[in-house]
Design goal:
mainly alpha, Arc Repressor Mutant, subunit A, three-stranded antiparallel β-sheet, 3 strands, 12% strand, globular
């Protein structure tokens, strides 16, 4: 009987050990930091520079830009079409205008989501 209790205790310990770590999803602090850098650089900025200013890895910046922030940004590439040397990222003009009006990112994202649904019809 005590061996059974030991197994349960060990399983709980292993579960706790493997369930620790990074939270899934996006970090609001990173989102706000990336958006702040993009607001300060409305002409455009490259991913590595965003990463330096926010103090996170370029891979993480790319993940956010290609994920949750994708509807807010526009990209332009410098260099040959097949293999660009540099990607310049900037907030869409619409987004910058809404931010200047004092709208929250949540409001802007909802508006863009509605616009995209309208475009799909």
């Amino acid at each position: 009987m005590s061996d059974f209790k030991g197994t349960i205790s060990l399983n709980k310990h292993l579960f706790n050990l493997f369930s620790m770590g990074r939270k899934s999803g996006y970090d609001n602090a990173k989102i706000n930091a990336i958006i702040s850098v993009l607001i300060q650089n409305s002409e455009g900025i490259w991913i590595r520079q965003i990463a330096r200013e926010v103090k996170i890895s370029p891979a993480t910046v790319s993940k956010y830009l290609n994920g949750i922030l994708k509807p807010l940004i526009e990209e332009s590439s410098l260099g040959p079409a097949g293999k660009p040397m540099l990607k310049v990222i900037r907030l869409k003009a619409y987004v910058l205008e809404r931010i200047e009006e004092g709208r929250s990112l949540t409001e802007i994202m909802k508006m863009l989501e509605i616009f995209n649904k309208i475009d799909d019809y």
